[in-house]
Design goal:
This protein starts with a helix and ends with a helix. It is built from 20 helices and no strands. It is about 60% helix and about 0% strand. With about 450 residues, it is mostly helical.
Length: about 450
Protein backbone atom coordinates (compact mmCIF):
# COMPACT_ATOMS: atom_id res chain seq x y z
CA UNK A 1 0.00 0.00 0.00
CA UNK A 2 2.81 2.44 0.83
CA UNK A 3 4.61 1.58 -2.40
CA UNK A 4 1.43 2.33 -4.28
CA UNK A 5 1.08 5.72 -2.56
CA UNK A 6 4.68 6.62 -3.42
CA UNK A 7 4.26 5.73 -7.08
CA UNK A 8 0.97 7.63 -7.30
CA UNK A 9 2.58 10.74 -5.79
CA UNK A 10 5.54 10.50 -8.17
CA UNK A 11 3.18 10.17 -11.14
CA UNK A 12 1.22 13.24 -10.00
CA UNK A 13 4.43 15.30 -9.81
CA UNK A 14 6.06 14.09 -12.99
CA UNK A 15 2.95 13.60 -15.16
CA UNK A 16 0.44 10.84 -15.62
CA UNK A 17 1.75 7.42 -16.56
CA UNK A 18 -0.41 7.44 -19.66
CA UNK A 19 1.65 10.36 -21.04
CA UNK A 20 4.76 8.21 -21.29
CA UNK A 21 6.16 7.60 -24.75
CA UNK A 22 5.84 3.85 -24.28
CA UNK A 23 3.05 1.98 -22.47
CA UNK A 24 3.82 1.09 -18.84
CA UNK A 25 4.02 -2.58 -17.90
CA UNK A 26 0.87 -4.05 -16.34
CA UNK A 27 2.45 -4.34 -12.88
CA UNK A 28 3.35 -0.66 -12.74
CA UNK A 29 -0.11 0.26 -13.99
CA UNK A 30 -1.69 -1.91 -11.31
CA UNK A 31 0.47 -0.40 -8.56
CA UNK A 32 -0.42 3.09 -9.70
CA UNK A 33 -4.14 2.43 -9.46
CA UNK A 34 -4.99 4.08 -6.14
CA UNK A 35 -7.77 2.66 -3.98
CA UNK A 36 -11.29 3.89 -4.67
CA UNK A 37 -11.38 5.65 -1.30
CA UNK A 38 -8.65 8.06 -2.44
CA UNK A 39 -10.75 9.08 -5.47
CA UNK A 40 -7.71 9.00 -7.70
CA UNK A 41 -8.22 9.62 -11.41
CA UNK A 42 -8.89 6.61 -13.59
CA UNK A 43 -5.99 5.04 -15.48
CA UNK A 44 -5.01 6.62 -18.79
CA UNK A 45 -6.06 10.06 -17.65
CA UNK A 46 -4.71 11.68 -20.80
CA UNK A 47 -6.97 9.48 -22.88
CA UNK A 48 -10.04 9.87 -20.67
CA UNK A 49 -10.93 13.55 -20.17
CA UNK A 50 -12.88 14.48 -17.08
CA UNK A 51 -16.60 14.53 -17.66
CA UNK A 52 -16.93 17.40 -15.22
CA UNK A 53 -15.41 19.85 -17.68
CA UNK A 54 -18.17 22.03 -19.06
CA UNK A 55 -18.52 25.11 -21.20
CA UNK A 56 -18.59 25.69 -24.96
CA UNK A 57 -15.71 24.34 -27.02
CA UNK A 58 -14.51 26.02 -30.19
CA UNK A 59 -13.12 22.90 -31.88
CA UNK A 60 -13.97 19.24 -32.01
CA UNK A 61 -10.75 18.36 -30.21
CA UNK A 62 -11.64 20.69 -27.35
CA UNK A 63 -15.02 19.00 -27.00
CA UNK A 64 -13.20 15.72 -26.37
CA UNK A 65 -10.66 17.46 -24.13
CA UNK A 66 -7.72 16.69 -26.41
CA UNK A 67 -4.95 18.74 -28.02
CA UNK A 68 -5.18 19.35 -31.79
CA UNK A 69 -2.33 16.90 -32.48
CA UNK A 70 -3.96 14.00 -30.61
CA UNK A 71 -3.59 10.61 -32.23
CA UNK A 72 -6.49 8.60 -33.62
CA UNK A 73 -6.25 6.20 -30.67
CA UNK A 74 -6.50 9.09 -28.21
CA UNK A 75 -9.56 10.41 -30.04
CA UNK A 76 -11.32 7.05 -29.97
CA UNK A 77 -10.65 6.39 -26.29
CA UNK A 78 -11.67 9.91 -25.26
CA UNK A 79 -14.87 9.51 -27.25
CA UNK A 80 -15.68 6.17 -25.62
CA UNK A 81 -15.09 7.63 -22.18
CA UNK A 82 -17.26 10.72 -22.69
CA UNK A 83 -20.03 9.00 -24.65
CA UNK A 84 -20.43 6.35 -21.95
CA UNK A 85 -20.44 9.03 -19.26
CA UNK A 86 -23.08 11.22 -20.98
CA UNK A 87 -25.51 8.53 -22.10
CA UNK A 88 -28.93 10.14 -21.49
CA UNK A 89 -30.51 6.88 -20.35
CA UNK A 90 -27.86 6.39 -17.65
CA UNK A 91 -26.45 9.79 -16.76
CA UNK A 92 -28.24 11.92 -14.18
CA UNK A 93 -26.89 15.21 -15.52
CA UNK A 94 -29.50 17.65 -16.88
CA UNK A 95 -27.37 18.44 -19.93
CA UNK A 96 -26.52 14.80 -20.67
CA UNK A 97 -28.49 14.63 -23.95
CA UNK A 98 -26.94 17.83 -25.29
CA UNK A 99 -23.42 16.81 -24.31
CA UNK A 100 -23.95 13.30 -25.71
CA UNK A 101 -24.89 14.72 -29.11
CA UNK A 102 -22.01 17.21 -28.97
CA UNK A 103 -19.47 14.46 -28.26
CA UNK A 104 -20.80 12.33 -31.11
CA UNK A 105 -20.72 15.26 -33.54
CA UNK A 106 -17.14 16.12 -32.56
CA UNK A 107 -16.00 12.53 -32.98
CA UNK A 108 -17.61 12.25 -36.41
CA UNK A 109 -15.97 15.51 -37.47
CA UNK A 110 -12.49 14.39 -36.41
CA UNK A 111 -12.81 10.93 -37.95
CA UNK A 112 -14.27 12.33 -41.19
CA UNK A 113 -17.49 10.35 -40.87
CA UNK A 114 -20.94 11.66 -41.89
CA UNK A 115 -23.08 12.89 -39.02
CA UNK A 116 -26.76 12.03 -38.72
CA UNK A 117 -28.81 14.27 -36.42
CA UNK A 118 -31.17 11.34 -35.79
CA UNK A 119 -28.29 9.48 -34.15
CA UNK A 120 -27.39 12.39 -31.88
CA UNK A 121 -29.95 12.23 -29.12
CA UNK A 122 -31.58 8.81 -28.68
CA UNK A 123 -35.31 8.73 -28.48
CA UNK A 124 -37.11 7.47 -25.42
CA UNK A 125 -35.99 4.08 -24.24
CA UNK A 126 -37.97 1.35 -26.00
CA UNK A 127 -40.69 -0.22 -23.96
CA UNK A 128 -39.55 -3.78 -23.28
CA UNK A 129 -41.85 -6.64 -24.00
CA UNK A 130 -44.04 -7.19 -20.98
CA UNK A 131 -43.27 -10.59 -19.50
CA UNK A 132 -46.06 -13.05 -20.13
CA UNK A 133 -45.05 -15.17 -17.15
CA UNK A 134 -45.06 -14.39 -13.47
CA UNK A 135 -41.43 -14.11 -12.31
CA UNK A 136 -40.51 -16.61 -9.65
CA UNK A 137 -39.61 -15.39 -6.18
CA UNK A 138 -35.92 -15.49 -5.29
CA UNK A 139 -34.94 -18.62 -3.39
CA UNK A 140 -31.27 -19.07 -2.43
CA UNK A 141 -29.95 -22.29 -3.90
CA UNK A 142 -27.02 -22.62 -1.47
CA UNK A 143 -26.32 -21.70 2.15
CA UNK A 144 -24.75 -18.34 2.89
CA UNK A 145 -21.34 -19.82 3.70
CA UNK A 146 -21.08 -21.18 0.13
CA UNK A 147 -21.49 -17.66 -1.27
CA UNK A 148 -18.90 -16.29 1.15
CA UNK A 149 -16.43 -19.01 0.11
CA UNK A 150 -17.06 -18.25 -3.55
CA UNK A 151 -16.45 -14.53 -3.00
CA UNK A 152 -13.20 -15.30 -1.19
CA UNK A 153 -11.99 -17.56 -4.01
CA UNK A 154 -12.76 -14.81 -6.51
CA UNK A 155 -10.58 -12.38 -4.55
CA UNK A 156 -7.57 -14.70 -4.49
CA UNK A 157 -6.38 -14.01 -8.08
CA UNK A 158 -6.95 -10.27 -7.55
CA UNK A 159 -4.66 -10.31 -4.51
CA UNK A 160 -2.06 -12.31 -6.39
CA UNK A 161 -2.11 -9.75 -9.21
CA UNK A 162 -0.98 -7.10 -6.75
CA UNK A 163 2.26 -8.96 -6.02
CA UNK A 164 2.88 -11.02 -9.13
CA UNK A 165 3.25 -9.68 -12.65
CA UNK A 166 -0.37 -9.40 -13.87
CA UNK A 167 -1.06 -10.22 -17.49
CA UNK A 168 -2.74 -7.92 -19.95
CA UNK A 169 -5.70 -10.31 -20.02
CA UNK A 170 -6.14 -9.93 -16.26
CA UNK A 171 -5.96 -6.13 -16.46
CA UNK A 172 -8.56 -6.07 -19.25
CA UNK A 173 -10.80 -8.38 -17.25
CA UNK A 174 -10.70 -6.17 -14.15
CA UNK A 175 -11.37 -3.04 -16.22
CA UNK A 176 -14.44 -4.64 -17.76
CA UNK A 177 -15.66 -5.87 -14.37
CA UNK A 178 -15.41 -2.29 -13.11
CA UNK A 179 -17.32 -0.95 -16.14
CA UNK A 180 -14.24 0.81 -17.56
CA UNK A 181 -14.65 -0.07 -21.22
CA UNK A 182 -12.44 2.77 -22.50
CA UNK A 183 -9.57 1.68 -20.26
CA UNK A 184 -10.03 -1.94 -21.34
CA UNK A 185 -9.81 -0.96 -25.01
CA UNK A 186 -6.71 1.14 -24.26
CA UNK A 187 -5.05 -1.81 -22.53
CA UNK A 188 -5.93 -3.96 -25.53
CA UNK A 189 -4.13 -1.51 -27.84
CA UNK A 190 -1.10 -1.52 -25.50
CA UNK A 191 -1.15 -5.28 -25.56
CA UNK A 192 -0.86 -5.33 -29.35
CA UNK A 193 1.85 -2.64 -29.32
CA UNK A 194 3.90 -4.77 -26.91
CA UNK A 195 3.71 -7.62 -29.41
CA UNK A 196 1.52 -9.94 -27.31
CA UNK A 197 -1.09 -11.92 -29.20
CA UNK A 198 -4.51 -11.57 -27.52
CA UNK A 199 -6.13 -14.80 -26.50
CA UNK A 200 -9.57 -15.93 -27.53
CA UNK A 201 -10.90 -14.99 -24.08
CA UNK A 202 -9.69 -11.39 -24.48
CA UNK A 203 -11.63 -10.94 -27.71
CA UNK A 204 -14.74 -12.48 -26.21
CA UNK A 205 -14.54 -10.26 -23.10
CA UNK A 206 -14.16 -7.10 -25.19
CA UNK A 207 -17.03 -8.04 -27.52
CA UNK A 208 -19.23 -8.64 -24.49
CA UNK A 209 -18.18 -5.31 -22.95
CA UNK A 210 -19.03 -3.42 -26.14
CA UNK A 211 -22.38 -5.22 -26.37
CA UNK A 212 -23.26 -4.23 -22.80
CA UNK A 213 -22.41 -0.60 -23.58
CA UNK A 214 -24.88 -0.51 -26.48
CA UNK A 215 -28.39 0.81 -26.17
CA UNK A 216 -31.06 -1.48 -27.59
CA UNK A 217 -32.81 -0.08 -30.64
CA UNK A 218 -36.59 -0.21 -30.46
CA UNK A 219 -39.05 -0.75 -33.26
CA UNK A 220 -38.72 2.01 -35.87
CA UNK A 221 -35.80 3.67 -34.07
CA UNK A 222 -32.35 4.64 -35.31
CA UNK A 223 -29.31 3.56 -33.24
CA UNK A 224 -27.49 6.41 -31.52
CA UNK A 225 -23.88 7.18 -32.41
CA UNK A 226 -22.47 5.29 -29.44
CA UNK A 227 -24.32 2.09 -30.36
CA UNK A 228 -23.26 2.41 -34.01
CA UNK A 229 -19.61 2.97 -33.08
CA UNK A 230 -19.66 0.12 -30.57
CA UNK A 231 -20.89 -2.17 -33.33
CA UNK A 232 -17.98 -1.01 -35.50
CA UNK A 233 -15.58 -1.87 -32.67
CA UNK A 234 -17.18 -5.31 -32.36
CA UNK A 235 -16.76 -5.92 -36.08
CA UNK A 236 -13.10 -4.81 -35.92
CA UNK A 237 -12.51 -7.20 -33.02
CA UNK A 238 -14.22 -9.96 -34.97
CA UNK A 239 -12.05 -9.32 -38.01
CA UNK A 240 -8.89 -9.07 -35.89
CA UNK A 241 -9.83 -12.32 -34.19
CA UNK A 242 -9.85 -14.15 -37.51
CA UNK A 243 -6.60 -12.50 -38.63
CA UNK A 244 -4.95 -13.69 -35.42
CA UNK A 245 -6.30 -17.18 -36.13
CA UNK A 246 -8.35 -17.23 -32.97
CA UNK A 247 -11.21 -19.61 -33.63
CA UNK A 248 -14.48 -18.18 -32.27
CA UNK A 249 -16.57 -20.58 -30.24
CA UNK A 250 -20.27 -20.76 -29.42
CA UNK A 251 -20.11 -18.05 -26.75
CA UNK A 252 -18.42 -15.59 -29.11
CA UNK A 253 -21.10 -16.17 -31.73
CA UNK A 254 -23.78 -15.67 -29.11
CA UNK A 255 -22.26 -12.34 -28.03
CA UNK A 256 -22.06 -11.23 -31.66
CA UNK A 257 -25.75 -12.06 -32.14
CA UNK A 258 -26.58 -9.97 -29.08
CA UNK A 259 -24.54 -7.08 -30.49
CA UNK A 260 -26.38 -7.25 -33.82
CA UNK A 261 -29.70 -7.45 -32.00
CA UNK A 262 -29.10 -4.42 -29.79
CA UNK A 263 -27.97 -2.38 -32.81
CA UNK A 264 -31.06 -3.38 -34.81
CA UNK A 265 -29.09 -5.35 -37.43
CA UNK A 266 -31.66 -8.15 -37.65
CA UNK A 267 -30.68 -9.55 -41.11
CA UNK A 268 -27.03 -9.92 -40.05
CA UNK A 269 -28.06 -11.66 -36.84
CA UNK A 270 -30.35 -14.06 -38.73
CA UNK A 271 -27.55 -14.89 -41.15
CA UNK A 272 -25.14 -15.56 -38.29
CA UNK A 273 -27.74 -17.69 -36.50
CA UNK A 274 -28.31 -19.73 -39.67
CA UNK A 275 -24.57 -20.37 -39.85
CA UNK A 276 -24.63 -21.61 -36.25
CA UNK A 277 -27.48 -24.01 -37.00
CA UNK A 278 -25.48 -25.50 -39.88
CA UNK A 279 -22.30 -26.08 -37.86
CA UNK A 280 -22.17 -28.98 -35.43
CA UNK A 281 -19.55 -27.19 -33.31
CA UNK A 282 -21.74 -24.08 -32.97
CA UNK A 283 -25.22 -25.56 -32.56
CA UNK A 284 -27.34 -23.02 -30.61
CA UNK A 285 -28.82 -23.80 -27.23
CA UNK A 286 -31.39 -21.97 -25.12
CA UNK A 287 -29.29 -18.80 -24.62
CA UNK A 288 -28.84 -18.25 -28.35
CA UNK A 289 -32.51 -18.99 -29.04
CA UNK A 290 -33.64 -16.58 -26.32
CA UNK A 291 -31.33 -13.90 -27.74
CA UNK A 292 -32.91 -14.39 -31.17
CA UNK A 293 -36.46 -14.35 -29.78
CA UNK A 294 -35.74 -11.17 -27.83
CA UNK A 295 -34.16 -9.42 -30.80
CA UNK A 296 -37.01 -10.31 -33.18
CA UNK A 297 -39.82 -9.39 -30.77
CA UNK A 298 -38.36 -6.09 -29.58
CA UNK A 299 -37.60 -5.02 -33.16
CA UNK A 300 -41.09 -5.94 -34.37
CA UNK A 301 -39.96 -8.84 -36.59
CA UNK A 302 -42.56 -11.25 -35.26
CA UNK A 303 -42.54 -13.46 -38.36
CA UNK A 304 -38.77 -13.90 -37.97
CA UNK A 305 -39.32 -14.97 -34.35
CA UNK A 306 -41.67 -17.69 -35.55
CA UNK A 307 -39.07 -18.81 -38.10
CA UNK A 308 -36.61 -19.19 -35.24
CA UNK A 309 -39.33 -21.14 -33.43
CA UNK A 310 -39.54 -23.55 -36.39
CA UNK A 311 -35.77 -24.00 -36.29
CA UNK A 312 -36.00 -24.62 -32.56
CA UNK A 313 -38.55 -27.36 -33.14
CA UNK A 314 -36.41 -28.96 -35.85
CA UNK A 315 -33.38 -29.11 -33.55
CA UNK A 316 -35.57 -30.59 -30.84
CA UNK A 317 -36.02 -33.63 -33.09
CA UNK A 318 -32.26 -34.25 -33.12
CA UNK A 319 -29.98 -35.49 -30.36
CA UNK A 320 -29.10 -31.89 -29.48
CA UNK A 321 -32.58 -31.00 -28.14
CA UNK A 322 -32.15 -27.33 -27.07
CA UNK A 323 -34.43 -26.59 -24.14
CA UNK A 324 -37.28 -24.13 -23.82
CA UNK A 325 -37.28 -21.72 -20.89
CA UNK A 326 -40.03 -19.50 -19.43
CA UNK A 327 -38.35 -16.60 -21.24
CA UNK A 328 -38.72 -18.48 -24.53
CA UNK A 329 -42.45 -19.00 -23.99
CA UNK A 330 -42.98 -15.39 -22.90
CA UNK A 331 -41.35 -14.03 -26.06
CA UNK A 332 -43.16 -16.55 -28.28
CA UNK A 333 -46.53 -15.50 -26.88
CA UNK A 334 -45.61 -11.89 -27.63
CA UNK A 335 -44.61 -12.82 -31.19
CA UNK A 336 -47.90 -14.64 -31.71
CA UNK A 337 -50.32 -12.09 -30.23
CA UNK A 338 -48.77 -8.64 -30.88
CA UNK A 339 -50.76 -6.37 -33.18
CA UNK A 340 -49.63 -6.21 -36.78
CA UNK A 341 -50.63 -6.70 -40.38
CA UNK A 342 -49.97 -10.44 -40.28
CA UNK A 343 -51.71 -11.10 -36.95
CA UNK A 344 -54.25 -13.42 -38.65
CA UNK A 345 -51.38 -15.61 -39.83
CA UNK A 346 -49.31 -15.48 -36.63
CA UNK A 347 -52.20 -16.27 -34.32
CA UNK A 348 -52.49 -19.71 -35.97
CA UNK A 349 -49.26 -20.68 -34.16
CA UNK A 350 -50.88 -20.17 -30.75
CA UNK A 351 -52.02 -23.81 -30.28
CA UNK A 352 -48.42 -25.02 -30.84
CA UNK A 353 -47.07 -22.65 -28.23
CA UNK A 354 -49.79 -23.44 -25.69
CA UNK A 355 -49.29 -27.18 -26.20
CA UNK A 356 -45.55 -26.83 -25.55
CA UNK A 357 -46.18 -24.74 -22.46
CA UNK A 358 -48.65 -27.29 -21.13
CA UNK A 359 -46.10 -30.07 -21.76
CA UNK A 360 -43.53 -28.14 -19.69
CA UNK A 361 -46.10 -27.23 -16.99
CA UNK A 362 -45.65 -23.52 -17.69
CA UNK A 363 -48.76 -21.36 -18.00
CA UNK A 364 -49.25 -17.72 -19.03
CA UNK A 365 -50.19 -15.27 -16.32
CA UNK A 366 -53.43 -13.26 -16.30
CA UNK A 367 -52.11 -10.27 -18.29
CA UNK A 368 -50.85 -12.56 -21.06
CA UNK A 369 -54.18 -14.40 -21.17
CA UNK A 370 -56.01 -11.10 -21.58
CA UNK A 371 -53.80 -10.15 -24.54
CA UNK A 372 -54.30 -13.56 -26.11
CA UNK A 373 -58.07 -13.23 -25.78
CA UNK A 374 -57.99 -9.74 -27.31
CA UNK A 375 -55.94 -11.03 -30.26
CA UNK A 376 -58.34 -13.95 -30.81
CA UNK A 377 -61.37 -11.64 -30.69
CA UNK A 378 -59.74 -9.15 -33.08
CA UNK A 379 -59.04 -11.91 -35.62
CA UNK A 380 -62.43 -13.64 -35.03
CA UNK A 381 -60.66 -16.90 -34.14
CA UNK A 382 -63.51 -18.41 -32.12
CA UNK A 383 -61.87 -21.79 -31.62
CA UNK A 384 -58.63 -20.26 -30.30
CA UNK A 385 -60.59 -17.96 -27.99
CA UNK A 386 -62.45 -20.97 -26.59
CA UNK A 387 -59.13 -22.78 -26.07
CA UNK A 388 -57.69 -19.81 -24.18
CA UNK A 389 -60.83 -19.54 -22.04
CA UNK A 390 -60.58 -23.25 -21.23
CA UNK A 391 -56.95 -22.74 -20.18
CA UNK A 392 -57.92 -19.78 -17.98
CA UNK A 393 -60.60 -21.80 -16.21
CA UNK A 394 -58.32 -24.81 -15.79
CA UNK A 395 -55.42 -22.81 -14.36
CA UNK A 396 -57.65 -20.44 -12.38
CA UNK A 397 -56.26 -17.14 -13.68
CA UNK A 398 -58.05 -13.98 -12.55
CA UNK A 399 -58.50 -12.12 -15.83
CA UNK A 400 -60.34 -8.87 -16.48
CA UNK A 401 -64.12 -9.63 -16.22
CA UNK A 402 -64.93 -7.30 -19.12
CA UNK A 403 -62.50 -9.06 -21.49
CA UNK A 404 -63.72 -12.47 -20.32
CA UNK A 405 -67.38 -11.48 -20.87
CA UNK A 406 -66.60 -10.14 -24.35
CA UNK A 407 -64.77 -13.37 -25.19
CA UNK A 408 -67.74 -15.46 -24.00
CA UNK A 409 -70.15 -13.38 -26.09
CA UNK A 410 -67.93 -13.79 -29.15
CA UNK A 411 -67.66 -17.53 -28.57
CA UNK A 412 -71.43 -17.80 -28.08
CA UNK A 413 -72.16 -15.83 -31.22
CA UNK A 414 -69.75 -17.95 -33.19
CA UNK A 415 -71.23 -21.19 -31.89
CA UNK A 416 -74.76 -19.92 -32.58
CA UNK A 417 -73.83 -18.95 -36.12
CA UNK A 418 -72.25 -22.36 -36.67
CA UNK A 419 -75.38 -24.09 -35.34
CA UNK A 420 -77.59 -22.01 -37.62
CA UNK A 421 -75.40 -22.79 -40.60
CA UNK A 422 -75.70 -26.51 -39.82
CA UNK A 423 -79.53 -26.35 -39.53
CA UNK A 424 -80.07 -24.43 -42.79
CA UNK A 425 -80.03 -27.53 -45.07
CA UNK A 426 -82.66 -29.28 -42.90
CA UNK A 427 -84.90 -26.18 -42.90
CA UNK A 428 -84.63 -25.84 -46.69
CA UNK A 429 -85.54 -29.51 -47.15
CA UNK A 430 -88.60 -29.12 -44.90
CA UNK A 431 -89.81 -26.04 -46.84
CA UNK A 432 -89.30 -27.88 -50.12
CA UNK A 433 -91.46 -30.76 -48.92
CA UNK A 434 -94.22 -28.33 -47.87
CA UNK A 435 -94.17 -26.66 -51.28
CA UNK A 436 -94.41 -30.05 -53.01
CA UNK A 437 -97.37 -31.18 -50.88
CA UNK A 438 -99.26 -27.90 -51.41
CA UNK A 439 -98.78 -28.07 -55.17
CA UNK A 440 -100.02 -31.64 -55.32
Amino acid sequence: YMLRRVVVSAAARGGALSRRSSPPPPLLRTLCAAPASEAAPAPHTALAPSVQAAGPASTSHEVLGLPPDASELDVKLAYYHLALAYRPDQSGRPDAAERFAEVGRAYSSIMGEPWDDAAGVPSAAPTPAEPALQPASHVPAFPRWVHRLSEYLERVPQRLDLWLMPSYSSVIYHHLRAGELAQALCTFEEMKVEGEVPSHAVYEMLIRGCTIAMRRVGQGEVPDHLTSNMLKVVMRLWKDMHEMERRPDYWTYNELIRAFGKAGAVPQALELFEHMCGNVRLLPEERAFNSMYEMCVLSGNYAAALQVFDEHEELRKSLWKPRYTPVSFSLLLAAVAREGDDLHKRIQQLPRVLALMDRHAVYPRAEACEKLLSACIATREIGLAAEVMSLIERVGQDVDPEIAARARRTIGEGEGGAARSLDEPAVEAKLERRRDSSSS
